[in-house]
Amino acid sequence: MSLQTLSSADIQAEKLDSWGFRAGAKVEGTCAISGKSISKADGVSTGIWECEPGEFDVPNRPNVESVMILKGYVKLTDMDSGSVKELRAGDAATLEKGSSVKWEVIETCRKFYVIA
After folding, report:
1. Which of 27, 35, 88, 108 has its CA 20 to 30 A from that of 21?
2. pLDDT at position 12
3. Could you tell me the domains of the chain?
4. The (S)-ureidoglycine aminohydrolase cupin domain covers which part of the protein (predicted)?
5. For a pLDDT cut of 70, what percent of the chain falls above it?
């Protein structure tokens, strides 16, 4: 068994790798993303992801993702119901398989994610 831990300070200070720009960004050249994969095993991925301001859609999500916002400010809009949720540091959300969500990154967002 492997146990990995990261303190809050470690997560905030973690150097991330450039992952280019978020596919599907509404305005070209926005939503620069970076991240670090922490673990990939048995169909579950965990890591840290950061995105600069911009907007993008995730239609018909192919998996389940749970996130904890570490810094920044985002608005998530359920594209089916129109319901809007605002998330800031300390807030969490689960995006279900099959959901369609519009992301509006208002302030550069860093999140810890679990994808299964």
Report:
1. 88
2. 79
3. 8-115 (2.60.120.10)
4. 40-113
5. 99
